[in-house]
Amino acid sequence: xxxxxxxxxxxxxxxxxxxxxxxxxxxxxxxxxxxxxxxxxxxxxxxxxxxxxxxxxxxxxxxxxxxxxxxxxxxxxxxxxxxxxxxxxxxxxxxxxxxxxxxxxxxxxxxxxxxxxxxxxxxxxxxxxxxxxxxxxxxxxxxxxxxxxxxxxxxxxxxxxxxxxxxxxxxxxxxxxxxxxxxxxxxxxxxxxxxxxxxxxxxxxxxxxxxxxxxxxxxxxxxxxxxxxxxxxxxxxxxxxxxxxxxxxxxxxxxxxxxxxxxxxxxxxxxxxxxxxxxxxxxxxxxxxxxxxxxxxxxxxxxxxxxxxxxxxxxxxxxxxxxxxxxxxxxxxxxxxxxxxxxxxxxxxxx
Length: 351
Prior knowledge:
It contains 15 helices and no strands. It has helices at residues 4-13, 15-33, 38-46, 50-75, 83-99, 104-117, 121-152, 162-187, 189-200, 214-220, 227-254, 261-274, 286-298, 304-333, 338-343. It is globular, with a radius of gyration of 21 Å.
Protein backbone atom coordinates (compact mmCIF):
# COMPACT_ATOMS: atom_id res chain seq x y z
CA UNK A 1 0.00 0.00 0.00
CA UNK A 2 1.23 3.51 -0.76
CA UNK A 3 2.72 5.53 2.05
CA UNK A 4 0.47 8.43 3.14
CA UNK A 5 3.05 11.01 2.04
CA UNK A 6 3.16 9.48 -1.45
CA UNK A 7 -0.62 9.62 -1.69
CA UNK A 8 -0.67 13.26 -0.60
CA UNK A 9 2.02 14.18 -3.10
CA UNK A 10 0.00 12.46 -5.84
CA UNK A 11 -3.12 14.34 -4.82
CA UNK A 12 -1.54 17.77 -4.66
CA UNK A 13 1.35 17.83 -7.09
CA UNK A 14 0.38 15.91 -10.21
CA UNK A 15 1.13 17.87 -13.40
CA UNK A 16 -2.25 16.92 -14.84
CA UNK A 17 -4.03 18.37 -11.80
CA UNK A 18 -1.94 21.54 -11.97
CA UNK A 19 -2.75 21.95 -15.66
CA UNK A 20 -6.43 21.26 -14.95
CA UNK A 21 -6.47 23.99 -12.31
CA UNK A 22 -4.74 26.46 -14.62
CA UNK A 23 -7.12 25.57 -17.42
CA UNK A 24 -10.21 26.08 -15.27
CA UNK A 25 -8.84 29.41 -14.01
CA UNK A 26 -8.08 30.53 -17.57
CA UNK A 27 -11.60 29.73 -18.77
CA UNK A 28 -13.25 31.64 -15.93
CA UNK A 29 -10.85 34.58 -16.22
CA UNK A 30 -11.79 34.82 -19.92
CA UNK A 31 -15.49 34.76 -19.03
CA UNK A 32 -14.85 37.31 -16.30
CA UNK A 33 -13.04 39.81 -18.55
CA UNK A 34 -14.62 39.35 -21.99
CA UNK A 35 -16.25 42.38 -23.64
CA UNK A 36 -14.72 44.68 -21.04
CA UNK A 37 -13.79 48.35 -21.27
CA UNK A 38 -10.51 48.25 -19.35
CA UNK A 39 -10.33 52.03 -19.19
CA UNK A 40 -13.63 52.06 -17.26
CA UNK A 41 -12.29 49.30 -14.98
CA UNK A 42 -9.24 51.47 -14.26
CA UNK A 43 -11.50 54.41 -13.47
CA UNK A 44 -13.49 52.24 -11.03
CA UNK A 45 -10.30 51.24 -9.25
CA UNK A 46 -8.98 54.79 -8.95
CA UNK A 47 -12.28 56.13 -7.61
CA UNK A 48 -12.65 53.44 -4.91
CA UNK A 49 -12.71 54.51 -1.25
CA UNK A 50 -9.42 53.14 0.11
CA UNK A 51 -10.41 53.78 3.73
CA UNK A 52 -13.49 51.56 3.41
CA UNK A 53 -11.39 48.85 1.77
CA UNK A 54 -8.93 48.89 4.69
CA UNK A 55 -11.83 48.66 7.14
CA UNK A 56 -13.18 45.71 5.11
CA UNK A 57 -9.82 43.96 5.42
CA UNK A 58 -9.87 44.39 9.21
CA UNK A 59 -13.44 43.01 9.29
CA UNK A 60 -12.30 39.97 7.30
CA UNK A 61 -9.61 39.18 9.86
CA UNK A 62 -12.27 39.52 12.56
CA UNK A 63 -14.21 36.82 10.71
CA UNK A 64 -11.12 34.59 10.70
CA UNK A 65 -10.88 35.09 14.46
CA UNK A 66 -14.46 33.84 14.90
CA UNK A 67 -13.55 30.82 12.77
CA UNK A 68 -10.77 30.10 15.24
CA UNK A 69 -13.35 30.38 18.05
CA UNK A 70 -15.57 27.92 16.19
CA UNK A 71 -12.68 25.51 15.73
CA UNK A 72 -11.90 25.79 19.45
CA UNK A 73 -15.50 24.75 20.17
CA UNK A 74 -15.42 21.81 17.76
CA UNK A 75 -12.09 20.56 19.10
CA UNK A 76 -13.20 20.51 22.75
CA UNK A 77 -13.92 16.75 22.83
CA UNK A 78 -10.44 15.89 21.50
CA UNK A 79 -8.08 18.78 22.35
CA UNK A 80 -7.74 21.75 24.71
CA UNK A 81 -6.85 24.39 22.12
CA UNK A 82 -7.52 28.09 22.69
CA UNK A 83 -8.63 30.40 19.84
CA UNK A 84 -5.39 32.35 20.29
CA UNK A 85 -3.33 29.27 19.44
CA UNK A 86 -5.68 28.11 16.71
CA UNK A 87 -5.76 31.42 14.82
CA UNK A 88 -2.23 30.94 13.38
CA UNK A 89 -3.10 27.39 12.34
CA UNK A 90 -6.24 28.73 10.63
CA UNK A 91 -3.99 31.18 8.73
CA UNK A 92 -1.70 28.29 7.74
CA UNK A 93 -4.71 26.47 6.29
CA UNK A 94 -5.82 29.54 4.34
CA UNK A 95 -2.32 29.96 2.88
CA UNK A 96 -2.14 26.30 1.88
CA UNK A 97 -5.56 26.36 0.24
CA UNK A 98 -4.68 29.53 -1.65
CA UNK A 99 -1.40 28.27 -3.12
CA UNK A 100 -2.05 24.52 -3.47
CA UNK A 101 -4.62 22.76 -5.66
CA UNK A 102 -7.21 20.36 -4.23
CA UNK A 103 -7.36 22.24 -0.89
CA UNK A 104 -3.97 20.95 0.19
CA UNK A 105 -4.05 23.50 2.99
CA UNK A 106 -6.42 21.28 4.96
CA UNK A 107 -3.71 18.58 5.07
CA UNK A 108 -1.12 21.14 6.20
CA UNK A 109 -3.56 22.49 8.82
CA UNK A 110 -4.19 18.98 10.17
CA UNK A 111 -0.44 18.35 10.28
CA UNK A 112 0.21 21.59 12.18
CA UNK A 113 -2.60 20.73 14.60
CA UNK A 114 -0.96 17.35 15.18
CA UNK A 115 2.41 18.94 15.87
CA UNK A 116 0.97 21.52 18.29
CA UNK A 117 -1.69 19.47 20.10
CA UNK A 118 -1.10 15.81 19.24
CA UNK A 119 -4.44 15.43 17.44
CA UNK A 120 -4.30 12.58 14.94
CA UNK A 121 -4.32 13.69 11.32
CA UNK A 122 -7.47 11.74 10.52
CA UNK A 123 -9.28 13.27 13.50
CA UNK A 124 -8.10 16.74 12.51
CA UNK A 125 -9.26 16.33 8.93
CA UNK A 126 -12.64 14.97 10.03
CA UNK A 127 -13.03 17.91 12.41
CA UNK A 128 -12.25 20.30 9.55
CA UNK A 129 -14.96 18.53 7.53
CA UNK A 130 -17.48 19.35 10.28
CA UNK A 131 -16.37 22.97 9.92
CA UNK A 132 -17.02 22.81 6.19
CA UNK A 133 -20.50 21.44 6.80
CA UNK A 134 -21.24 24.39 9.08
CA UNK A 135 -19.96 26.67 6.34
CA UNK A 136 -22.43 24.96 4.02
CA UNK A 137 -25.23 25.64 6.50
CA UNK A 138 -24.38 29.36 6.56
CA UNK A 139 -24.07 29.63 2.77
CA UNK A 140 -27.43 27.90 2.42
CA UNK A 141 -28.93 30.40 4.87
CA UNK A 142 -27.39 33.26 2.85
CA UNK A 143 -28.97 31.89 -0.31
CA UNK A 144 -32.35 31.51 1.35
CA UNK A 145 -32.26 35.09 2.68
CA UNK A 146 -31.11 36.48 -0.65
CA UNK A 147 -33.57 34.53 -2.78
CA UNK A 148 -36.49 35.36 -0.48
CA UNK A 149 -35.47 39.05 -0.49
CA UNK A 150 -35.66 38.93 -4.29
CA UNK A 151 -39.05 37.24 -4.21
CA UNK A 152 -40.55 39.96 -1.98
CA UNK A 153 -38.69 42.80 -3.76
CA UNK A 154 -36.82 43.96 -0.65
CA UNK A 155 -35.01 47.22 -1.40
CA UNK A 156 -36.17 47.04 -5.00
CA UNK A 157 -34.42 43.68 -5.57
CA UNK A 158 -35.41 41.58 -8.57
CA UNK A 159 -35.75 37.78 -8.30
CA UNK A 160 -32.38 36.04 -8.02
CA UNK A 161 -33.00 33.77 -11.00
CA UNK A 162 -33.33 30.05 -11.62
CA UNK A 163 -29.66 29.13 -11.12
CA UNK A 164 -29.37 30.62 -7.63
CA UNK A 165 -32.81 29.28 -6.67
CA UNK A 166 -31.90 25.76 -7.83
CA UNK A 167 -28.56 25.99 -6.00
CA UNK A 168 -30.46 26.95 -2.85
CA UNK A 169 -32.74 23.91 -3.15
CA UNK A 170 -29.77 21.59 -3.80
CA UNK A 171 -27.87 22.93 -0.78
CA UNK A 172 -30.86 22.65 1.52
CA UNK A 173 -31.15 18.97 0.63
CA UNK A 174 -27.41 18.21 0.69
CA UNK A 175 -26.65 20.04 3.91
CA UNK A 176 -29.63 18.49 5.70
CA UNK A 177 -28.61 14.96 4.71
CA UNK A 178 -24.98 15.57 5.71
CA UNK A 179 -25.84 17.06 9.10
CA UNK A 180 -28.16 14.16 9.90
CA UNK A 181 -25.53 11.62 8.80
CA UNK A 182 -22.84 13.25 10.95
CA UNK A 183 -25.19 13.34 13.93
CA UNK A 184 -26.00 9.65 13.58
CA UNK A 185 -22.30 8.73 13.23
CA UNK A 186 -21.35 10.81 16.26
CA UNK A 187 -24.15 9.36 18.40
CA UNK A 188 -23.34 5.75 17.46
CA UNK A 189 -19.55 5.75 16.92
CA UNK A 190 -18.86 2.01 17.41
CA UNK A 191 -21.58 0.88 15.04
CA UNK A 192 -20.61 3.59 12.50
CA UNK A 193 -16.98 2.51 12.62
CA UNK A 194 -17.89 -1.14 12.05
CA UNK A 195 -20.10 -0.27 9.07
CA UNK A 196 -17.50 2.04 7.50
CA UNK A 197 -14.71 -0.54 7.87
CA UNK A 198 -16.94 -3.22 6.37
CA UNK A 199 -17.75 -0.99 3.39
CA UNK A 200 -14.10 -0.02 2.89
CA UNK A 201 -13.03 -3.66 2.79
CA UNK A 202 -15.20 -4.10 -0.28
CA UNK A 203 -12.73 -1.84 -2.10
CA UNK A 204 -9.99 -4.09 -3.50
CA UNK A 205 -7.06 -1.87 -2.53
CA UNK A 206 -8.29 -1.67 1.09
CA UNK A 207 -9.45 -5.26 1.48
CA UNK A 208 -6.59 -6.24 3.80
CA UNK A 209 -6.36 -2.94 5.65
CA UNK A 210 -7.29 -3.07 9.33
CA UNK A 211 -9.20 0.24 9.14
CA UNK A 212 -7.66 1.54 12.38
CA UNK A 213 -7.55 5.07 10.96
CA UNK A 214 -11.36 5.10 10.78
CA UNK A 215 -11.42 5.55 14.56
CA UNK A 216 -9.67 8.90 14.06
CA UNK A 217 -12.33 10.00 11.59
CA UNK A 218 -15.09 9.05 14.03
CA UNK A 219 -13.26 10.90 16.80
CA UNK A 220 -13.06 14.04 14.68
CA UNK A 221 -16.82 14.24 14.07
CA UNK A 222 -17.80 13.69 17.72
CA UNK A 223 -18.92 17.33 18.16
CA UNK A 224 -21.67 16.72 15.60
CA UNK A 225 -23.43 14.50 18.15
CA UNK A 226 -23.38 17.11 20.94
CA UNK A 227 -26.29 19.56 20.50
CA UNK A 228 -24.77 22.12 22.89
CA UNK A 229 -21.41 22.15 21.08
CA UNK A 230 -23.08 22.19 17.69
CA UNK A 231 -25.28 25.15 18.69
CA UNK A 232 -22.28 27.10 19.99
CA UNK A 233 -20.36 26.33 16.80
CA UNK A 234 -23.34 27.47 14.72
CA UNK A 235 -23.39 30.87 16.43
CA UNK A 236 -19.64 31.21 15.97
CA UNK A 237 -20.18 30.38 12.27
CA UNK A 238 -22.90 33.02 12.08
CA UNK A 239 -20.51 35.60 13.53
CA UNK A 240 -17.71 34.61 11.15
CA UNK A 241 -19.86 34.62 8.04
CA UNK A 242 -21.70 37.73 9.18
CA UNK A 243 -18.38 39.58 9.29
CA UNK A 244 -17.44 38.21 5.89
CA UNK A 245 -20.75 39.41 4.43
CA UNK A 246 -20.14 42.80 6.05
CA UNK A 247 -16.75 42.86 4.34
CA UNK A 248 -18.42 42.17 0.97
CA UNK A 249 -20.84 45.02 1.67
CA UNK A 250 -18.07 47.47 2.66
CA UNK A 251 -16.10 46.72 -0.50
CA UNK A 252 -19.28 47.29 -2.51
CA UNK A 253 -19.76 50.64 -0.77
CA UNK A 254 -16.12 51.48 -1.53
CA UNK A 255 -16.94 51.04 -5.24
CA UNK A 256 -20.23 52.92 -4.84
CA UNK A 257 -22.36 49.98 -6.01
CA UNK A 258 -25.25 51.03 -3.72
CA UNK A 259 -26.81 47.57 -3.56
CA UNK A 260 -29.04 46.14 -0.78
CA UNK A 261 -27.35 43.94 1.82
CA UNK A 262 -29.13 40.72 0.66
CA UNK A 263 -27.33 41.05 -2.69
CA UNK A 264 -24.01 40.66 -0.87
CA UNK A 265 -25.34 37.56 0.86
CA UNK A 266 -25.99 36.12 -2.60
CA UNK A 267 -22.51 37.17 -3.75
CA UNK A 268 -20.92 35.45 -0.74
CA UNK A 269 -22.95 32.30 -1.28
CA UNK A 270 -22.41 32.05 -5.05
CA UNK A 271 -18.68 32.85 -4.97
CA UNK A 272 -17.93 30.42 -2.14
CA UNK A 273 -20.12 27.61 -3.44
CA UNK A 274 -18.46 27.69 -6.86
CA UNK A 275 -14.97 27.42 -5.36
CA UNK A 276 -15.97 24.55 -3.07
CA UNK A 277 -15.00 22.20 -5.89
CA UNK A 278 -11.20 22.24 -5.34
CA UNK A 279 -10.11 22.63 -8.97
CA UNK A 280 -8.13 25.89 -8.80
CA UNK A 281 -5.67 27.30 -6.27
CA UNK A 282 -7.45 29.97 -4.25
CA UNK A 283 -10.51 29.79 -6.51
CA UNK A 284 -8.93 32.31 -8.91
CA UNK A 285 -11.28 32.77 -11.84
CA UNK A 286 -14.47 31.04 -10.63
CA UNK A 287 -14.77 33.34 -7.57
CA UNK A 288 -14.46 36.54 -9.60
CA UNK A 289 -16.82 35.32 -12.31
CA UNK A 290 -19.54 34.27 -9.85
CA UNK A 291 -19.29 37.51 -7.86
CA UNK A 292 -19.52 39.61 -11.04
CA UNK A 293 -22.48 37.68 -12.42
CA UNK A 294 -24.51 38.07 -9.21
CA UNK A 295 -23.75 41.78 -8.98
CA UNK A 296 -24.83 42.29 -12.60
CA UNK A 297 -28.27 40.85 -11.83
CA UNK A 298 -28.93 43.91 -9.68
CA UNK A 299 -26.52 46.65 -10.74
CA UNK A 300 -28.08 49.13 -13.18
CA UNK A 301 -25.61 51.90 -13.97
CA UNK A 302 -23.26 53.17 -16.63
CA UNK A 303 -20.33 50.78 -17.01
CA UNK A 304 -22.05 48.30 -14.67
CA UNK A 305 -19.90 45.41 -15.94
CA UNK A 306 -16.66 47.30 -15.36
CA UNK A 307 -17.73 48.32 -11.85
CA UNK A 308 -18.66 44.70 -11.10
CA UNK A 309 -15.29 43.50 -12.41
CA UNK A 310 -13.36 45.99 -10.27
CA UNK A 311 -15.45 45.03 -7.25
CA UNK A 312 -15.04 41.27 -7.72
CA UNK A 313 -11.29 41.47 -8.36
CA UNK A 314 -10.70 43.72 -5.33
CA UNK A 315 -12.89 41.55 -3.14
CA UNK A 316 -11.04 38.37 -4.00
CA UNK A 317 -7.70 40.10 -3.60
CA UNK A 318 -8.65 41.09 -0.06
CA UNK A 319 -9.81 37.55 0.68
CA UNK A 320 -6.65 35.98 -0.74
CA UNK A 321 -3.56 38.12 -0.32
CA UNK A 322 -3.40 39.38 3.31
CA UNK A 323 -4.34 36.07 4.97
CA UNK A 324 -1.99 34.17 2.63
CA UNK A 325 0.92 36.38 3.66
CA UNK A 326 0.07 35.90 7.33
CA UNK A 327 -0.28 32.16 6.81
CA UNK A 328 3.07 31.90 5.03
CA UNK A 329 4.70 33.73 7.93
CA UNK A 330 3.27 31.16 10.35
CA UNK A 331 4.33 28.33 8.04
CA UNK A 332 7.87 29.61 8.47
CA UNK A 333 7.36 29.99 12.23
CA UNK A 334 6.13 26.41 12.54
CA UNK A 335 9.06 25.19 10.39
CA UNK A 336 6.79 23.71 7.73
CA UNK A 337 8.99 23.47 4.60
CA UNK A 338 7.38 25.99 2.25
CA UNK A 339 9.31 24.79 -0.83
CA UNK A 340 8.04 21.25 -0.34
CA UNK A 341 4.57 22.67 0.22
CA UNK A 342 4.73 24.59 -3.07
CA UNK A 343 5.81 21.39 -4.81
CA UNK A 344 2.77 19.68 -3.29
CA UNK A 345 4.70 17.44 -0.90
CA UNK A 346 3.16 17.87 2.55
CA UNK A 347 5.19 16.86 5.62
CA UNK A 348 5.09 13.24 6.69
CA UNK A 349 2.31 12.03 8.98
CA UNK A 350 2.85 10.17 12.19
CA UNK A 351 3.54 6.48 11.76
